[in-house]
Write a structure and sequence with these properties.
Blueprint lengths: L5 H6 L7 E6 L5 E9 L3 H4 L1 E6 L2 E6 L16 E4 L2 E5 L3 H9 L5 H5 L14 E9 L2 E12 L2 E13 L5 E6 L16 E4 L4 H11 L5 E10 L5 E7 L3
Length: 237
Amino acid sequence: MKMLSLEQELKGNAYPGRGIVIGKTPDGKKAAIAYFIMGRSENSRNRIFVTDGEGIRTQAFDPARLSDPSLVIYAPVRVLGNKTIVTNGDQTDTIYELMDKQMTFEQALRTREFEPDAPNYTPRISGILHIENGTYNYAMSILKSNNGSPDACNRFTFAYQNPAAGEGHFIHTYMGDGNPLPSFEGEPKLVGIPNEMNAFADMVWTSLNEENKVSLFIRFIDIETGAYETKILNKNK
């Protein structure tokens, strides 16, 4: 698979929607995560990321302007032991709760499907990172409507064992802007990951469409120790 420029992928798409990047730094020492949200409506744009334990959650920037919390207020990131879960919806909680009951990532997501936001039927995208005894692997999932039809849910899981240094994978909800919004197609995109967390955050944030971007979460996790650093950027301040 050809490695793409994450910067160019973001700059070339005015509305990728919500996106997850997972990979490993070039020095091989850290796992890297990026999760961003965008919005076209006032309800979607009226949000910020805030820390919540070892994870984060979305929160209304102005509670008085929050019209419908159902698909915009959730915990995108939660930590379950040596696993870090990142998703674009409340399936984070589903994965956390069912994996805590010894189900797998894929089994947990079998209980969910795409979002009920006709006519878009926004895909649910999810990722999980597993770091243990100096080893690291991750998986990504997309649950999407059948070519825009809500009658069937197409389920795809991509697992990456012992990922290569300097490489990551990028999955997002929409191919671009439109009405209805066209769902992501194909495998997660192969992209490069830098060594420096702040540089990674700055690149992603400045590459996202200025009008539509809302919030960004970045985390680098030391593969040997499990210690992590986090950076959050919010357009609303």
